[in-house]
Amino acid sequence: IIYKFISLYHIFEELGLELNFEITCADSENSLDEIVKNNNNYLIVSNKKYPDISNLFVLENIPINIYKLVEQINIQFLKLQFNNQSQVKVNNYTINLNSREMFANNNIKLKLTEKEINTITYLSKSNKPVKIDELQAKVWSYQSDIETHTVETHVYRLRKKILNTFKDNEFIISKKNGYQIK
Q1: Residues with Cβ < 8 Å from 172, sequence gap 6 or more?
Q2: φ and ψ at 68, to 5 degrees?
Q3: Average pLDDT, stretch 38-54?
């Protein structure tokens, strides 16, 4: 999306066949909002910084070689896709896999370990309770015949962290045949 930078839009329009992305132009906040609302994968290119706009790439160093510009835009797209893939939504929480943090809607955050993230994501993919043996095998790579309380201990500590931070005692529930994210 080229925002309030009509000359750049015209340049891209002329080169349109050689680009591997679609371009649109927004000349007002309303048109930008409408375009953004109808797209989930976008990058906004402008020659000015707008602090209230996300996914914004500001083109400051002009003139620039057009091929370098296209390369920079492609790099920005890749970064956005990487960041979008690193966000996992589980119930009312968002987990950032890169920073290993869990966020509530009110921006309260909780730092998690890799095993805690793996446990939550594994449990969230199941519609039924997950047995302890299955968690041992899939998350910890333990064999089921080993006598250990690793899973129970980790789940207990994880539930306690979530309760202390988010006041949520119902996120991971214990059932007689395993654990489940409600």
Answers
A1: 120, 123, 155, 158, 159, 162, 179, 180, 181, 182
A2: -65, -40
A3: 84
